[in-house]
Write a structure and sequence with these properties.
This protein has 227 residues and is an alpha/beta fold. It has a domain of 146 residues: 2-Layer Sandwich (Nucleotidyltransferase, domain 5). The protein contains 8 helices and 5 strands. A 5-stranded mixed beta sheet has the order 3-2-1-4-5, sandwiched between helices. The two termini are 20 Å apart. The C terminus is likely disordered.
């Protein structure tokens, strides 16, 4: 889990919380539960870009609870999606024209998440996107622990790799190695589902001491990006 949501920071943020109605974020979530989260955005800079879609799905034990999910289109208030981001996630300005802004979506999302750990592929980017809205609402960042599936994948495949090994941490490469079907990438709910499936598979491999074999001479693709 991410050290950025350590105990000292959680205590500081809890003391700084502007609205005590959200103290539940600092309480442990239900035992054995986590939430897989994904945001689609207008770009890759949390300082200036906005969320245009967010999805989250609960995980309980070894089950992904598709019936317990959160989905929302979001109307950006500070930046508009450029041609490249529209090409990636296929969400046009017209699609979000009647959507709610993130400041109105966030309270519902936070109640859905609660104190559960957040699972994702490059989850730090998604959380940083939400943090800027959370700071307006709560005066603090999200305190939830983070579970990064690319780090778990690295450990299972490259943790014992010799010097000079070329790493490939692309989402598609990880899913292929784990035998997980590729759904529609850059769709918030599908990305959250695939990250959830990857986490369960990698957690099981770690429990069994299993590793992902490496093919000799395999090259790496372009570096992965969030959003």
């Amino acid at each position: 889990m991410s050290p950025h949501r350590g105990l000292a920071w959680r205590l500081f943020w809890r003391a700084s919380l502007a609205d005590h109605a959200y103290r539940f974020l600092f309480e442990p979530g239900p035992e054995g539960e986590a939430v897989s989260l994904d945001c689609e955005t207008t770009g890759l800079d949390p300082a200036v870009d906005d969320v245009v879609a967010v999805a989250a799905v609960r995980i309980r034990g070894n089950r992904i609870l598709l019936s317990e999910r959160f989905e929302a289109l979001v109307r950006p208030e500070e930046s508009e999606a450029g041609a490249e981001s529209i090409r990636v996630h296929r969400i046009r300005r017209a699609d979000v024209a009647d959507a709610r802004p993130m400041r109105r979506v966030l309270p519902e999302l936070l109640r859905f998440i609660g104190g559960r750990p957040l699972v994702g592929y490059y989850i730090d980017f998604d959380v940083r996107m939400l943090d800027k809205y959370a700071k307006d609402l709560l005066q603090v960042k999200l305190p939830n622990p983070q579970i990064e599936v690319s780090a778990l994948y690295f450990d299972r495949k490259y943790g014992n790799a010799p010097p000079g090994t070329v790493f490939d941490l692309r989402f598609a490469a990880m899913l292929a190695d784990l035998g997980i079907p590729m759904l529609a990438q850059h769709d918030a709910l599908d990305d959250a589902l695939m990250a959830a499936m990857a986490w369960l598979a990698l957690r099981d491999m770690k429990a069994r001491g299993a590793r992902i074999p490496r093919a000799r001479g395999s090259g790496a693709g372009p570096p992965p990006t969030g959003g």
